[in-house]
Amino acid sequence: MDYEVTELSYYAQEIAKVARGLGLDFYPVHFEVCPAEAIYSFGAYGMPVRFTHWSFGKAFYRMKMQYDLNLTRIYELVINSNPSYAFLLEGNRLIQNKLVIGHVYAHVDFFKHNRYFRRTPQDMVLRMEAHARRMRDYELEHGRDKVEKTLDAVLAIQEHVDFRAHLGPQKSSAEDSNKKGGAQKKISVHLTEYADLWDRETDDEAEERLPEEDLLLYLMTHSSSLEDWQRDILSMIREESLYFYPQIETKIINEGWATFWHSRIMRELDLTDAEAVDFAVMHSQVVQPAKLQLNPYYLGVKIWDHLAEHYDWETLFEIREMENDISFVRNYLNQELVEELNLFNYRKVGAHWQVMDTAWEKVRDNLVKQLVHGGHPRILVMDGDYEGKGGLYLVHGHEGLDLDIVYLERTLQLLQTLWGKGVYLETVVDGKKILFECTSSGISRKSMAKVQDRQKEEQ
Questions:
Q1: What number is the average pLDDT over the span 33-59?
Q2: 147-184 per-position pLDDT tens digit
Q3: 432 phi and psi, to 5 degrees?
């Protein structure tokens, strides 16, 4: 085992030299070899250390079952931090680890230079460890059931943060630490890169500023029913969501970049004939098209390969720095690629799948549409005192896809526990505008036309 670690360390250094010689620039990377249980635990939790929740255990058992049945296999996990941490699957052959190490270096190069990661904290492993400790303290103080119920509600809406926050100017926590007062000052000590967002407006100014896209932040600053420790849980989940969001919106371009470079790095190594064959097999498995879903490795590397044929290296590095999945696909998935990859729009009609469109622009636009907001619905806070009764009025930015009604109603119930008063969501169902109302007495739905008629009568 010591010999394997020494050998792996040697090749990691050699591959790093090759990667840097090709132009990649990355943070130091610490590699660790882990058993499958550890790898899949990290994959389920998203980090080596994080607070506990039943949903993470559910994800672990699903991923581990797929591994045990040989349906999927995670060869590595890499953490966006400085230094970066990469975890290699125990039992990988040396040639597999060589490919994975090259893949990791390209990922870390992307993390370091892509503008969408500009604001992500580089010490997030330590921060999540601190979050886990605080969560355990709250469980001891307030009871595990109460903390878990709060987490259930917050995790149900964790994606609804301002995903543009990582692009704006950045302040240090110290700049704002003297501006806070009361309960908010007590909580602000836990916030770091995003502490400036606590310097909020008055209620009148907030109303003028609506709509608000950052639902978690709005609840933190305006809910009258939350206790200080619950606001702190919201702040922790929000910080973690802002950390993960850039990874969600750069999945295709990032995996494509890593795959593009690991193939070039491997060509520079002095491989034996057997290793060259093994590498070719592994690489083909990585970029194999999926039947009913998009393989981000496949689409991403095909676009990068096409770009490499038409642009110089400087341009490729500029694209790596400036684009996310939406702009990458919109700008560079052209007719030639759509036809080469045999992409088309399809949907299930009855019991069968049916091709709906093959026009390349419509195929590209449909894919871009699926990538907007990381594939999550856009929910806007429109009013924090609906009808003068303290209700929270939300609007779903409908983009042609209806919400899952069962999930919608359950989420509204959880959200209502955080807000403490009525929660209202305006959306579109089967082409008709509907208002869902969730209060302590239950959930109901009304036609927006009837709601508007009633409001006119009351005026």
A1: 90
A2: 999 999 999 999 999 877 656 444 333 333 333 333 33
A3: -115, 140
Residue 432's closest CA among 447, 444, 443? Answer: 447
Q: Is the peptide bond before 48 cis (omega within 30 degrees of 0)?
A: no
pLDDT at 209: 67
What distance in Å separates the CA atoms of residue 208 and residue 201, rounded to the nearest whole number?
10
Question: Could you give the CA distance from residue 21 to residue 107 in angstroms, rounded to a whole number?
Answer: 16
- How many whole angstroms separate alpha carbon 192 and alpha carbon 121? 9
Of 245, 246, 219, 247, nearest to 233 by C-alpha is 219
pLDDT tens digits along 275-315: 999 999 999 988 988 777 789 999 999 999 999 999 999 99
Residues 6+ apart with CB under 8 A from 114: 246, 250, 254, 320, 321, 322, 323, 324
| Percent above pLDDT 90 for the chain | 66
pLDDT at residue 208 above 60? no
Rounded CA-CA distance 131/451 in Å is 43
Rg (CA), the chain: 24
What are the residue ranges of helices labelled H in 173-289?
Answer: 173-176, 182-188, 203-209, 215-222, 228-248, 251-268, 273-286
Assign 66 a pLDDT band (cuts: 50, 70, 90): confident
Find how far residue 251's CA is from the centre of its chain. Answer: 9
For the stretch 222-244, pLDDT in tens is: 999 999 999 999 999 999 999 99
194 touches 124 (CB < 8 A): no
Give the separation between CA 134 and CA 130, rounded to whole angstroms.
6
Task: Please spell the DSSP secondary structure of 218-232, one letter per residue.
Answer: HHHHH-SS--HHHHH
What's the whole-number average pLDDT of the chain? 87
Tell me what the mean pLDDT of segment 259-266 comes to. 97
Listed by start position, the domains of the chain span 2-114+250-332, 336-374, 377-458
Q: In sequence order, what are the residues at sequence separation of 6 or more whose Cβ sits closer than 8 angstroms to the Cβ of residue 374? A: 159, 163, 245, 248, 249
Buried b (16+ CB within 10 A) or exposed e, 10-28: eebeebbebbeeeebebbe
* Rounded average pLDDT over 195-215: 61
| Cβ proximity of 258 and 110 under 8 Å | yes
Strand 84-89: give its sheet, edge to edge. Answer: 29-34, 84-89, 76-79
Query: Distance of alpha carbon 118 from its chain centroid, rounded?
Result: 15
Phi and psi at residue 166, to the nearest 5°: -80, 0
Half-sphere exposure of 242 (CA within 13 A, CB side): 30
